[in-house]
Amino acid sequence: MIDLRSDTVTKPTPEMRQAAFEAVVGDDVYNEDPTILKLEALAAEIVGKEKAMFVPSGTQGNQIAVLTHCVSGQEVILEADSHIYFYEGATISAFAGVQPRTIKGKDGVMDPEEVKLAIREDDIHQPETGLICLENTHNRAGGAIVPLENMRDIYSISKEAHIPVHLDGARLFNASVATGISIKEYAAYTDTVQFCLSKGLGAPVGSIIAGDEAFIVKARKWRKRLGGGLRQAGMIAAPGIVALNKMVDRLTEDHEKARLLAQGLIEIGFSVENNVDTNIVLVNTQSRGYTAKQFVEKLKESGILSSAFGPDTVRFTTHYDVSEEDIQNSIDLIKKLV
Ligand SMILES: *Cc1c(COP(=O)(O)O)cnc(C)c1O
């Protein structure tokens, strides 16, 4: 099977497995796991924030951010197709008790003027705006890169209004590698950042949430409340250290593979719906007479796994466990199918 469903399907590298095997560990709820502390220090350094904290998943990292920044009854501004709004089970409402205020972006990019207008006034009838969330790269926009200038503009609006900004940077490393803009530069226009170790970077488990020290102190408490306080977690943090040290630069290969796939599919007569900035390709199946579900099934019979993304859209995601040859083979197989 050539698995192009997601960049989460990768298996840990031999070096990650070795690192897990050899990890020096302690009880992380007591702050005594040396490998966790090492990963958190490395992550904080990379994002340029005072502190970082390991969390079991990106979803938990985002939810901890909302819970830590906000109080119940506030409103959070987010992009209408953002992961936090679309894919996290309404947890911001159910757990944090906040109301989402969505803004439809273009390729995942919100207009700063619209963000400004969405910020609530001091009025007895209205909720307070408690947080603004950004996402880069933008998942549902097909791994689209949100330009640094856009983040800067929204950040400056937020600072005038004294509202914090959280970045869901599950795939921020993809943006950074594609643009040459450092993680630190992106993170400079945020108060807190979440990024995944378990997506393109290939670690088996985990995400990082970073911010200033006061934020992380509160966030640790939320993590414990949510059941994310782990014990000898160095076992799973060690592969994360390998991910940050060894797996970042190679993301360019994933982007090349995505472009290769997009090109190949366009040549067969499919239309590609996204710009393919990074490692995701959104392919429209309608012109070839398939619904997304039908096409996914058909591909599966030929040994290719993909995701139905919309009624007529199939999503392919490249990652280090698929080679350029796999991509070429996939294109050849699809050519035969249609
Ligand atoms: C995958 C993803 C998450 C959630 O990460 P999990 O580790 O799967 O919980 C959050 N935000 C974005 C943009 C994602 O792509």
Automatic annotation (TrEMBL):
Name of the molecule in the record: L-threonine aldolase
Recorded GO CC terms: cytosol
Ribosomal protein recorded as keyword: no
Pfam families xref list: Beta_elim_lyase
InterPro entries xref list: ArAA_b-elim_lyase/Thr_aldolase, Low_specificity_L-TA-like, PyrdxlP-dep_Trfase, PyrdxlP-dep_Trfase_major, PyrdxlP-dep_Trfase_small
Recorded superkingdom: Bacteria
Requisite cofactors: pyridoxal 5'-phosphate
One GO BP: glycine biosynthetic process
Limits of the Aromatic amino acid beta-eliminating lyase/threonine aldolase domain: 3-286
GO molecular function: L-allo-threonine aldolase activity
Residues bearing PTM N6-(pyridoxal phosphate)lysine: K199
Family of this protein: Belongs to the threonine aldolase family.
Organism: Ornithinibacillus halophilus
Keywords of this entry: Lyase, Pyridoxal phosphate
